[in-house]
Design brief:
This is Adenosylhomocysteinase. It is found in: Cytoplasm. InterPro entries: Adenosylhomocyst_ase-like_sf (IPR042172), Adenosylhomocysteinase-like (IPR000043), Ado_hCys_hydrolase_NAD-bd (IPR015878), NAD(P)-bd_dom_sf (IPR036291), S-Ado-L-homoCys_hydrolase_CS (IPR020082). This protein is of the alpha/beta class and 419 residues long. It has 2 domains: 222 residues, Adenosylhomocysteinase-like (Rossmann fold), CATH 3.40.50.1480; 157 residues, 3-Layer(aba) Sandwich (Rossmann fold), CATH 3.40.50.720. The chain contains 17 helices and 15 strands. It has an 8-stranded mixed beta sheet with strand order 9-8-7-10-11-14-13-12, with helices on both faces. The longest helix is centred in the middle third of the chain and has 24 residues. The chain starts with 10 loop residues before the first helix and ends in a 6-residue tail after the last helix.
């Protein structure tokens, strides 16, 4: 079996972490039990480009249980948990191409290894795998039944591909499914981003001014949790509806050029490029921490920061680089501008990834079952699949909910009854 990981001897720790996460992923476990019996992916090859974490390990275990021939590569150079990668190779027989801290050349070499698997189904977190296939591997177009996309940034890219008529196979926008974005993006990103910031800096959030760029599901989750830890939260936005929502949720809303003058900590969660740039660095407070929890390392204009810096001191703490400007001010960049929650911490808790990865698994099954009906477009899952995941999650939490009576069903489907 071919693979490329840091050290196979890390596997013991990795296996413990995988099984620890598994106990908090009961919905995915139930799906895995069914897949083992039904083998929906028998005879199919799957290439997954995801964050190589303990939670992801349980997803690829589930796909393999369903009969798939699976390989896994990293979707981010800093998010790989090397011990998990080792355990997947040694204990679960799944080839992995991922090393934490790999350079750009190695990252794309690992992508090519996943493509060389000649997949029938792909799974992405950021759309790098699909992008590489579309640009460089036309020989695979006809054999790919579909792809799954995990994150907001990837969905944005895929919708652009569809609009430009370059998408050659159907894609399920898993990120746009309620059982993903309402929980993973909000509760997962909110908690894990703060976890990464605190681990990297040891900062006390209470009393600090915390600026959050973007008030989508990730931004609002982060804002809620930062506020809950005593931070004074400022939100910046370009969307007037989201800005209004942030204001009515009790947060200060202002332009970034003004917000950075007050900020002790700034985190970008927009999915866009150069949200923090030269004019912002020039007026930031001395000692400001800046970080990103959007998918790619482009939200902070790092080249511009390097040009302004008179001195750069790397790793003054783990995952913290110090940029000293000409006037003596210091700006601290966390995790090289990459996903701070996965680089400096462990990513989302398993219990919330349970629903996201259950959605991934069922989306893959949906693609196989409907391969003759799907066009080369970006789709969301049917609502009944979301409902099934939500009901199963509630059951594992010991929560029961009411059901509509026949009278209520009739009332909701009728129009005659008025005031």
């Amino acid at each position: 079996m071919k693979y490329d990981i840091k050290d196979i001897n890390l596997a013991d720790l990795g296996k413990r972490r995988i099984l620890w996460a598994d106990k908090d992923m009961p919905v995915l476990s139930k799906i895995r039990e069914r897949f083992e019996k039904e083998k929906p992916f028998a005879g199919l090859k799957m290439s997954c480009c995801l964050h190589v974490t303990a939670e992801t390990a349980n997803l690829v275990r589930t796909l393999k249980a369903g009969g798939a021939d699976v390989v896994l590569c990293a979707s981010n150079p800093l998010s790989t948990q090397d011990d998990v990668a080792a355990s997947l190779v040694r204990d679960f027989g799944i080839p992995v191409f991922a090393i934490k801290g790999e350079d750009n050349e190695t990252y794309y070499k690992h992508l090519e290894s996943a493509i060389a698997h000649s997949p029938n189904i792909t799974m992405d977190d950021g759309a790098d795998l699909v992008s590489e296939i579309l640009k460089n591997h036309p020989e695979l177009y006809g054999q790919i039944l579909g792809s799954m996309e995990e994150t907001t940034t990837g969905v944005i890219r895929l919708k652009a591909m569809e609009k430009n008529n370059v998408l050659k196979f159907p894609v399920i926008a898993v990120n746009d499914v309620q059982t993903k974005y309402m929980f993973d993006n909000r509760y997962g990103t909110g908690q894990s981003t703060l976890d990464g910031i605190i681990r990297a800096t040891d900062v006390l959030l209470a009393g600090k001014t915390f600026v959050i760029a973007g008030y989508g599901w990730c931004g609002r989750g982060l804002a809620e949790r930062a506020k809950g830890m005593g931070a004074n939260v400022i939100v910046t936005e370009v969307n007037p509806i989201k800005a209004l929502e942030a204001a009515m949720d009790g947060f200060r809303v202002m332009e970034m050029i003004d917000a950075v003058k007050e900020a002790d900590i700034i985190c970008t969660v927009t999915g866009n490029i150069h949200v923090l740039r030269k004019e912002h660095f020039e007026v930031m407070k001395d000692g400001c921490y800046i970080c990103n929890s959007g998918h790619f390392d482009v939200e902070i204009d790092i080249p511009a920061l390097k040009e302004l810096a008179e001195e750069i001191n790397e790793n003054v703490r783990n995952f913290v680089d110090e940029y000293v400007l000409a006037d003596g001010r210091k700006i601290y960049l966390l995790a090289e501008g990459r996903l701070v929650n996965l680089s400096a911490a462990e990513g989302h808790p398993a219990s919330v990834m349970d629903m996201s990865f259950a959605t991934q698994a069922l989306a893959s099954e949906y693609v196989v079952k409907n391969k003759d009906k799907l066009e080369n477009k970006v789709y969301v899952l049917p609502e009944e699949i979301e409902q099934d995941i939500a009901f199963t999650k509630l059951a594992t939490m010991g929560i029961k909910i009411d059901q509509l009576t026949e009278e209520q069903k009739e009332y909701l489907s009728a129009w005659e009854i008025g005031t």
